[in-house]
Amino acid sequence: MAFETKNVEKNQLAAEVQALKNGGQRLLTMTCVDLGESFDLLYHFDLDLQMTHLRLTVPKGESVPSISGIYFAALVIENETQDLFGIKFEGLALDFGGHFYLEEEVKKYPFCKVTVGKTEKAGEGA
Amino acid sequence: MATIVPFGPQHPVLPEPLHLRLVLEDEIVKEALPTLGYVHRGLETLASIRDMDQMVQIVERVCGICSCIHAHTYCMCIEGLMGIEVPKRADYLRVIWSELHRMHSHLLWLGLLADAFGMESMFMHAWRIRERVMDVLEATAGNRVIISVNKIGGVRRDMSPDQLRWVLQVADELEKELDLIKPVLTNDYSVKKRTVGVGVLTYQQAYELGAAGPQLRGSGVAQDIRMTGYGAYKYIDFAPVVEKDGDSWARTMVRFRELYQSIDIVRQLVSSIPDGELAAKVKGKPMGEIACRSEQPRGELMYYVKATGDKYLDRVRIRTPTFANVPPLLVMLPGCEMADVPIIALSIDPCISCTER
Question: Which of B40, B86, B287 has the highest number of chain A CBs within 10 A, making it the mutation to test binding with A?
Answer without folding.
Answer: B40
